[in-house]
Amino acid sequence: QVQLVESGGGLVQAGGSLRLSCAASGRTFSNYARGWFRQAPGKEREFVAAISGSGGTTYYADSVKGRVTISRDNAKKMVYLQMNRVKPEDTAVYYCAAGQTRASWNVPPRKLEDYEYWGQGTQVTVSS
């Protein structure tokens, strides 16, 4: 059974940091692009960050650029999202995802529909 499991969420003060982790099981995703998305109450799920299958290309949403870093460790089947200088508007449920497109080895997709595997999400709450 293929599973993605997020961890590392919680309550953090504005300006603080936290690292989200996503563990994969059931298959290897070493060739897959990996992404992080988030969904705030009453809003649609939105793109946060993505990393290509090769690990050589990363993309970030404008809202988090410069504060967030996505990384992957294929040997451990892990993907991470390091969040620094968090803001109250970062409050959301964060989801990790895995997807494979024709270009995803070099260019990670940023659309939800390009990701076929999803975790259950981890809550991040930033207090002001």
What would you note in describing this structure?
- This protein is mostly beta strands and 128 residues long.
- The chain has strands at 3-7, 10-13, 18-25, 33-39, 46-51, 58-60, 68-73, 78-83, 92-99, 117-118, 122-127.
- The strands form 2 sheets. Strands 2, 4, 5, 6, 9, 10 and 11 form a 7-stranded mixed sheet that branches. A 4-stranded antiparallel sheet has the order 1-3-8-7, with no helix packed on it.
- A hairpin with a 6-residue loop joins strand 5 (46-51) and strand 6 (58-60).
- The termini are far apart.
The helix content is under 10%
Structural class: mainly beta
Secondary-structure element string? EEEEEEEEEEE
Count of helical segments? 0
C-alpha termini separation? 40 Å
Rounded mean pLDDT score: 95
- Can you tell me the residue ranges where pLDDT is under 50 for at least 5 consecutive residues? none
Q: What is the β-strand count? A: 11
Strand content: over 45%
Give a quick account of the main beta sheet: strands, pairing sense, barrel closure. Answer: 7 strands, mixed
Q: Using the CA coordinates, give the radius of gyration.
A: 14 Å
